[in-house]
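Structure in, sequence out. Go:
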């Protein structure tokens, strides 16, 4: 029979013994595991056409609305050539002076032509006399040849005078054109309208000009493309993009539908860019282009410029030994975890393979069915008494 002092000593010792720490546990299991790179992406039409004004002019009001279908060759907008600028008093006076100068030059050219004609008539008459006298032997052959040369020279002079008149007429027209101003209608008539047509069949993606206004040459008017022919662009960290290659499978989520869309990495752009994150951190980013798989009917409602969630699969296994990532921690040898064995925490070094935010692959150091402690606190150490937390 235990004496009272001995019983008190035993009770005191049991009271000093620490109680087991409650812990959360999870078994090591086998099953499918994917490792993905997750990032937000944006859809865009693959073949996008920006229709621009071919020349400076006034565009009439655009009636087409974004989303309306168009066929190749359909009229997208109507453009009228720009009217001449209005002239101030000084510019008008200078233009009128240029017109008078050009008209005077035209009159001088016409006078030169009449003089050349008169000289040609006289030379032809002189040649006729010289030829007649030459046949009679009164004048020498050289005199006749000189008369013929005179006729040829006068003929060329008349041609030059005709050309001078043409030049002077063009200068008059150019000088008068500088006096043209916009008419009361404010532009060209129906015959001067130019129809801007669609280069492809598709839909109006964006209407960059709507109201009637004056646009310069090359001004973008509208964007046209096929909204069913979509691709996705997502900017990933350059360190993540370096791990990718064309053809890798992609899962598209959070696009507005209830299904997960499939895709493939089409291209990793060769040049990166600097981007400031929401936390103000400078990051080097690289655009990754993703092709959507399946028919457009599987993604009905998805359009140009929509936000999506992109998950690029970098590793996939159908039968991987895995534990929750929250059970792992770093030690001097690499990765480690606490196992729960016979009510005690046992430290175990592990060789860990690919992992995602939820689970990690165990290559060695653990067997299927063994129990690991999830979210181990700082109070847990090798050999510490533990018990499973009651839910």
């Amino acid at each position: 029979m235990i004496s009272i002092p001995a019983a008190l000593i035993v009770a005191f010792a049991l009271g000093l013994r620490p109680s087991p720490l409650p812990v959360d546990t999870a078994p090591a299991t086998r099953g499918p595991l994917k490792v993905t790179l997750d990032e937000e992406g944006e859809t865009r039409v693959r073949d996008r056409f920006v229709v621009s004004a071919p020349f400076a002019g006034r565009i009439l009001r655009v009636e087409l609305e974004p989303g309306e279908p168009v066929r190749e060759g359909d009229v997208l907008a109507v453009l009228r050539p720009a009217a001449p600028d209005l002239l101030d008093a000084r510019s008008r006076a200078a233009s009128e002076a240029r017109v008078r100068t050009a008209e005077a030059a035209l009159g001088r050219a016409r006078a030169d032509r009449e003089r050349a004609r008169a000289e040609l008539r006289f030379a032809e008459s002189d040649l006729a006399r010289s030829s007649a006298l030459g046949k009679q032997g009164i004048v020498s052959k050289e005199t006749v040849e000189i008369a013929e040369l005179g006729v040829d020279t006068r003929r060329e002079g008349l041609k030059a005078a005709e050309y001078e008149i043409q030049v002077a007429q063009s200068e008059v027209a150019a000088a008068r054109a500088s006096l043209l101003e916009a008419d009361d209608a404010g532009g060209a008539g129906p015959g001067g309208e130019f129809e801007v047509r669609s280069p492809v069949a598709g839909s109006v993606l964006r209407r960059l000009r709507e109201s009637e206004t004056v646009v310069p040459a090359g001004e973008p008017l509208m964007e046209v493309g096929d909204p069913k022919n979509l691709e996705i662009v997502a900017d990933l960290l350059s360190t993540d993009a370096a791990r990718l290659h064309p053809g890798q499978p992609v899962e598209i989520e959070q696009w507005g539908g209830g299904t997960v869309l499939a895709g493939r990495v089409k291209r990793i752009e060769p040049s990166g860019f600097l981007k400031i994150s929401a936390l103000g951190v400078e990051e080097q980013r690289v655009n990754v282009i993703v092709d959507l798989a399946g028919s457009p009917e599987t993604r009905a409602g998805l359009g140009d410029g929509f936000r999506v969630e992109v998950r690029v699969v970098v590793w996939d296994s159908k039968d991987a030994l895995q534990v929750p990532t929250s059970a792992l921690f770093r030690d001097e040898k690499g990765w480690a975890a606490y196992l729960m064995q016979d009510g005690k925490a046992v430290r175990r070094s592990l060789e860990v393979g690919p992992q995602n935010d939820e689970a990690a692959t165990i290559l060695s150091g653990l067997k299927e069915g063994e129990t690991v402690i999830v979210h181990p606190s700082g109070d847990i150490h090798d050999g510490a008494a533990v018990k499973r937390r009651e839910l």
